[in-house]
């Protein structure tokens, strides 16, 4: 953990499935020379002429609606629906504002500070906040000219870039929905998302993504235009546009619309099968953004400009919250990592940019720790002792609240119910950061958000006496044995990894089976070009094998050749983990080492490197069946 208290519960409360985050703190302050005065003057004029209309229509109206409409639902599944603001005191709570307001206010106040940075061959391409705002307005005008209708959507599919952020904000400014789609999504998944969100415009980054849309465009009745913003267009179509062309670069000829016509909802999509559109209001984004920045004590210019690096997919709201919205709210400088960031180049970007803040999913911290341990192997004894002392000092500083998600944001609430004998219960949350509902899916929305506005997260955990939240697993992960006993796999898996340091992933299986089995992967190197795991073990794993007096350097040495020393060590680690479980049913009876480590390319990990348990169970069904068949034969 870094020098600022981790959000945890706050991020956890924004959307389901968002990973816990941690922060790394440094410092930095950057500013560009003054932007052209005509550009700044135009934005100031816009602010002056529109602010009175905006305040009346969006702030007072929302307060009046809350007072008049007692019992107005906390959820909706309709694209033009409205929801009740979760406010305990409407007079002291932060007044709701739109995304447009937040972006415009920052552009006026911090016009000449760096907003975005993108790496090009000749260095970094930088945009100031006033330039960023103007690009978003031009994108909004372009979308309107291309036929974007109110309550319809703009789909954005590509790797993180300034064009991604500009297109997203532009879609919202134009009165539409911004729908982020994973770049790994299949054409079928794109079709389902486009149809459900009534997508008028598809924005893609390259020809690979374009070909997916070409395959399905005949079945998309709302599609009016496709915009490609990177690479040369190889397949020209009647409704295809390129932002690389001077003629079609975010069209500049339209007159801006009044902000009172902006729709106060934004849309985010998840790519699981089937994809679900999760609607977010402007207030969801702006309120959570401001509350997050305040809780983490983010700084603003001129005191200091925060510097962030964007590398997790922006189609995930956890990444989008920090990379786009929080950075805008505090006038931070956001730099985009290279496309191969998760395959190794992220470290180089961090060294070059020197971010003051860094958020990541557990997988990223694990890899950073692996790299640190690998570097220690070749360092001097003095350097190793210094590293160990520094790590011990950091752990001592944060030990009081290790492994928790943090506290709820002010004016939000967290509770647990239906506790088991260990005090673990279902986690529920309440606040203005709760999403509006699933688009066109009233049944699932009602299951997720109750009549009092509480979100049923599906996660399991507990609150300590100081209201710190601890998440121990997800209800979907619970394994029910044939005896009816329910087992939470997460604590057992983490315990196994603690006893067997060369193991990267542990996946417990045993649904409707008489006992638990485990699938193990060992720590392998990654091909930085393809992202695929290699046969070679990591330097840390090899060094550990040497400590065991084993000569293994490859996964095949252990799996195929059956290295007896390593296999015996793993067996002892499983036994040690079994000794700590509360019941015999929670013991691992059989285990096997898989022939490859998990990866995003292989399909076992999602785009944010979260383990996809259902996918693992399908991919390794033969190995799982073999474990139980062997046990039956022994009987």
Describe the structure.
With 635 residues, the protein is an alpha/beta fold. It folds into two domains: 9-353, ANL, N-terminal domain (Rossmann fold), CATH 3.40.50.12780; 479-634, ANL, C-terminal domain (GMP Synthetase, Chain A, domain 3, 2-Layer Sandwich). It is built from 19 helices and 23 strands. It has a five-stranded parallel sheet with strand order 4-3-5-6-7, with helices on both faces. Strands 2-1-11-10 form a four-stranded mixed sheet, sandwiched between helices. A four-stranded antiparallel sheet has the order 12-13-15-16. A hairpin with a 5-residue loop joins strand 8 and strand 9 (276-281). Helix 6 crosses helix 7, helix 8 (282-295) packs across helix 9 (317-329) and helix 14 (489-499) packs across helix 17 (564-578). The longest helix has 32 residues, at 37-68. It starts with 8 loop residues before the first helix and ends with a helix. The model is unreliable at 1-30, 43-71 and 251-273 (pLDDT under 50).
Task: Write a concise keyword list for the protein shown above.
2 domains; 18% strand; alpha/beta; disordered N terminus; Rossmann fold; single chain; GMP Synthetase, Chain A, domain 3
Note the topology.
Blueprint: H1 9-14, H2 37-68, H3 99-109, E1 114-120, E2 123-128, H4 129-145, E3 153-157, H5 162-173, E4 177-181, H6 187-196, E5 199-204, H7 207-216, E6 225-228, E7 240-242, E8 265-270, E9 276-281, H8 282-295, E10 307-310, H9 317-329, E11 333-336, H10 346-353, H11 362-377, H12 381-398, E12 413-417, E13 425-430, E14 437-438, H13 442-448, E15 455-463, E16 469-474, E17 479-480, E18 486-487, H14 489-499, E19 503-509, E20 516-522, E21 524-526, E22 533-537, H15 539-547, H16 555-559, H17 564-578, E23 588-593, H18 613-619, H19 621-634
Parallel strand pairs: 1-11, 3-4, 3-5, 5-6, 6-7, 10-11, 20-23
Antiparallel strand pairs: 1-2, 8-9, 9-14, 12-13, 13-15, 15-16, 17-18, 19-20, 21-22
Helix pairs in contact: 2-3, 3-4, 4-5, 6-7, 8-9, 14-17
